[in-house]
């Protein structure tokens, strides 16, 4: 109603002003009459205007002021989009981002966060007793562990591991065989607190690959979530395929029979909470790592043979997400209020890298229930602001949206609205409060919690048509990343303001320091 009144007022201003000027000037030379500097007294001219015209001028000023202050702002790219990188001389075609120093590679973003241990400590300093890791049961709200609680549990778990023979150095490899959940992060931080190395294991590797990794990395301790996974690990020991495995720590409850099976083959089975209790009785002072220390060994899927272990230092991981921050810091910097929905495997560096960005700035991470079919319900309950995703899920979202537009008229209207909104996106305007959002896209945005401000997609190419539609429909910044485990995670990334799809490899380059 206000907008209508202002627009009507502006029209009225034009009509009133035109009428008054015509009364004061003869039709002999209208253009000459409009040369206000030739009037002897501009103030006298204004005072001579009728009250209705002055009111109209005031209304016009209000309209202009309202438009200036509320018009959507375009995202300003951090560099010339036609010149985003330059070739490095004498480096056989290697290219360097234009967004950083030409003489030095970027090793870290924050002076107080040069290792993954320091990354967490920085988040702890920012948020303290505030929420950190969240989980939920079906039809229940999220419950949260604070940064301080996670810090305490990580120290207790790490101390408990050391009290049972693990060594606080980078020669100690700890396997983590679990779905994404709070205990995964706690286990990881326990290793970092005492300079131990994390080795992720996951189901999709297959039993042969898991046996190979445990044997190759000489893993003596595995932390896993479910008794079924512990049974698989025990069977490998019983067949003498992984004789070095001596301890399995379980997140979930288990029965006495599993303990007996472990005793028969020399494997100690115990609960995570019991190891933490042991750490409380035998607490050890943290042994923080250095940037050049090994932090994690991620084994690839082994599509060309046996899995290959990628050895990443703390400096590798910190440098990679420093590149992410460098590219986006002027347009969408993470903060304490950010909430990330975690459903991708933490065994993959893509997910872990984005979560590290959130942790470094004191944000929250909420985990899905473990069933991808319940992810929409989890997102409504969590209301995330950051959504790491893979193209396959984006395709499902796109298909579901158009399946609900069940006739040609609805589909035409949806496409029409997306094109109109897409025209704004192409100009760098990203918003969720346009008329198209209110009429067509509000329900789509609400189905994802209604607070998204950033989506990052990687792991596979995304369809340009799907990505273009979702950029318009979701009203948030959508970034594409390209990378591989060998370069920590992402090695190229969409430049803010460049909303073309499918060109991260060619056009966009981030900074990272590979040791």
Report the C-alpha radius of gyration, rounded: 30 Å
Q: Please give the largest β-sheet.
A: 5 strands, parallel
Beta-strand percent range: 5-15%
Residue share in helices? 40-55%
Biggest sheet, strands in spatial order?
6-5-7-8-9
How many domains? The number is 3
By DSSP, the count of extended strands is 17
Q: Architecture of the largest domain, CATH level 2? A: 3-Layer(aba) Sandwich
Output the CATH homologous superfamily of the largest domain. ANL, N-terminal domain
Large-scale geometry:
elongated
Topology overview:
Elements: H1 2-24, H2 30-33, H3 42-47, H4 51-70, E1 85-87, E2 95-97, H5 116-127, E3 131-135, E4 143-146, H6 147-162, E5 173-177, H7 182-193, E6 197-201, H8 207-216, E7 221-224, H9 227-238, E8 247-250, H10 256-264, E9 268-271, H11 272-281, E10 294-299, E11 309-313, H12 314-328, E12 339-342, H13 349-360, E13 364-367, H14 375-382, E14 386-389, H15 391-404, H16 408-426, H17 435-446, E15 454-457, H18 464-474, E16 477-483, E17 490-493, H19 504-507
Parallel strand pairs: 3-13, 5-6, 5-7, 7-8, 8-9, 12-13, 14-15, 15-16
Antiparallel strand pairs: 1-2, 3-4, 10-11, 16-17
Helix pairs in contact: 1-4, 5-13, 6-7, 6-11, 12-13, 16-18
Organism: Ctenopharyngodon idella (Grass carp)
Domain AMP-dependent synthetase/ligase: 141-501
EC number: 6.2.1.3
């Amino acid at each position: 109603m206000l907008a209508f009144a202002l627009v009507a007022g502006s029209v009225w201003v034009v009509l009133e002003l035109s009428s008054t000027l015509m009364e004061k000037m003869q039709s002999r030379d209208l253009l000459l009459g409009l040369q206000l500097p030739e009037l002897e007294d501009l103030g006298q001219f204004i005072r001579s205007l009728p009250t209705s015209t002055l009111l109209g001028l005031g209304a016009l000023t209000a309209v202009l002021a309202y438009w200036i202050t509320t018009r959507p702002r375009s995202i300003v790219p951090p560099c010339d989009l036609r010149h985003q990188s330059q070739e490095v001389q004498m480096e056989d075609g290697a290219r360097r981002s234009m967004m950083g120093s030409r003489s030095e590679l970027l090793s870290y973003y924050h002076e107080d966060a040069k290792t993954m241990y320091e990354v967490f400590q920085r988040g702890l300093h920012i948020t303290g007793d505030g929420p950190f890791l969240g989980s939920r049961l079906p039809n229940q709200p999220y419950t949260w562990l604070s940064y301080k609680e996670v810090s305490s549990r990580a120290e207790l778990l790490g101390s408990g591991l050391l009290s049972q023979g693990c060594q606080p150095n980078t020669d100690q490899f700890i396997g983590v065989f679990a779905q994404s959940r709070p205990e995964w992060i706690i286990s990881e931080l326990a290793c970092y607190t005492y300079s131990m190395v994390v080795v992720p294991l996951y189901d999709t590797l297959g039993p042969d690959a898991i046996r190979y990794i445990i044997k190759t990395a000489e893993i003596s301790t595995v932390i896993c979530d479910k008794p079924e996974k512990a049974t698989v690990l025990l069977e490998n020991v019983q067949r003498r395929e992984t004789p070095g495995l001596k301890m399995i720590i379980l997140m979930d409850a288990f029965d006495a029979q599993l303990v007996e099976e472990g005793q028969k083959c020399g494997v100690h089975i115990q609960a995570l909470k019991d190891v933490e209790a042991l750490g409380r009785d035998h607490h050890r002072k943290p042994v923080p790592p250095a940037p050049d220390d090994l932090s994690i060994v991620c084994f690839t899927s082994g599509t060309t043979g046996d899995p290959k272990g990628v050895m990443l230092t703390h400096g590798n991981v910190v440098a990679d997400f420093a590149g992410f921050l460098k590219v986006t810091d002027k347009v969408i910097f993470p903060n304490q209020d950010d909430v990330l929905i975690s459903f991708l495997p933490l065994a993959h560096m893509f997910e872990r890298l984005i979560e590290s960005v959130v942790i470094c700035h004191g944000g929250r991470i909420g985990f899905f229930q473990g069933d991808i079919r319940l992810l929409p319900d989890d997102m409504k309950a969590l209301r995330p602001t950051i959504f790491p995703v893979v193209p396959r899920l984006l395709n499902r979202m796109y298909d579901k949206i158009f399946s609900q537009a069940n006739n040609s008229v609805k589909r035409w209207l949806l496409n029409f609205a997306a094109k109109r909104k897409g025209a704004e996106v192409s100009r760098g305007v990203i918003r969720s409060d346009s008329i198209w959002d209110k009429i067509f896209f509000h329900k789509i945005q609400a189905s994802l919690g209604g607070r998204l401000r950033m989506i990052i997609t990687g792991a596979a190419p995304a369809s340009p048509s799907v990505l273009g539609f979702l950029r318009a429909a979701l009203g948030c910044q959508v970034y594409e990343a390209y990378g591989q485990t060998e370069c920590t995670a992402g090695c190229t990334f969409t430049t803010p303001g460049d909303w073309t799809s499918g060109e991260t490899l060619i056009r966009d380059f981030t900074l990272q320091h590979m040791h």
